[in-house]
Amino acid sequence: MERGRHGYFLHALSARRRAVGSDLHFYQQVWFHKLGTPVSADTYELGHDFPRIAEIELAASEDGQWLLATVANGDGGDYAHYLRDNSGSWHQLTHFEDGVKVIKFRKDAALYLLSKKDAPRGKILRLPLAELDLAKAVAVVPEGKDVVGEYEPSASGIYVAMMEGGPSRLWFYPDNRGKPSEVPILPVSSVGGLHAGEATN
CA end-to-end span of the chain, whole Å? Predict the structure, then answer.
C-alpha cells in the first residue's frame, strides 16, 4: 500500500478473484481508495491482464509524483514493472523476460534498475524519467566478478553490496563515473538493509 495525495493505492481483490472461491489468493490488482469513502467506491488502476499468480509491490517516489508497481510472476524470480505518472497514466517499463529484478527512485529524476539480462551476476542501469524506454538505459555499475546483492542510490552516487562467495563487500560508485571505492566493513560480514538518508553522500 502507498499513500496518494487524497487516499491510498493498494493491491486488492479483483472482481474475478472474489467471484471464484478456489482462487481466493490469486488475481491481484492495483486499486485506489479515497479517504473518507466506502470500499465500494474504490477505483481500479491496473492489473486486469496480470497473471493469476501475480504478486504486487508498490513504491512511491519521494516527491509523490510517481508510483512504481513491481509485479512478480509468482515465485520464479521474474518481474514486470509499471510506472504511474502524476497525470494518472500507467507506463509499462519492463516485461518478465527483460531480466530487471529491482527498480529504485532517486532525486536526479532517474530510475536505477538492477538487471540480470546478459549479466547473471547483475548490473545497475540508469533510466531518466523523461525517457521511460528500457532500450535507452545506461549501465552505471557494470557486471563484475561478484554478485550484486543490494544497492541504494544516494545524493552523489550508488552504494552496492557485492557478494563474494558468502561474505559481502560494500562499494560506492560516484556519479562522475570515477573509480569505485570500497567502504570498510567488518571482515566476513554480510551487508543488508541499505538506506541513504538526507545527509548521505
Answer: 29
What band does 16 get if pLDDT is binned at 50, 70 and 90? very low
- Please state the pTM of the whole predicted model: 0.88
Residues 6+ apart with CB under 8 A from 3: 9, 60, 64
Neighbours of 93 (CB within 10 A): 22
The conformational region for residue 188 under phi > 0 = left, psi -120 to 50 = alpha, else beta, is left
Confidence label for 5 from pLDDT (cuts 50, 70 and 90):
low
Give residues with Cβ within 8 angstroms of 61, minimum separation 6.
67, 68, 105
Rg (CA), the chain: 19
CA distance 41 to 62: 27
Do 138 and 112 touch, CB atoms closer than 8 A?
no
* SS3 per residue for the chain: CEECCCEEEEEEECHHHHHCHHHCCCCEEEEEEECCCCHHHCEEEECCCCCCCEEEEEEECCCCCCEEEEEEECCCCCEEEEEECCCCCEEEEECHHHCEEEEEEECCCEEEEEECCCCCCCEEEEEECCCCCHHHCEEEECCCCCEEEEEEECCCEEEEEEECCCCEEEEEEECCCCCCEEECCCCCCCCCCCCCCCCCC
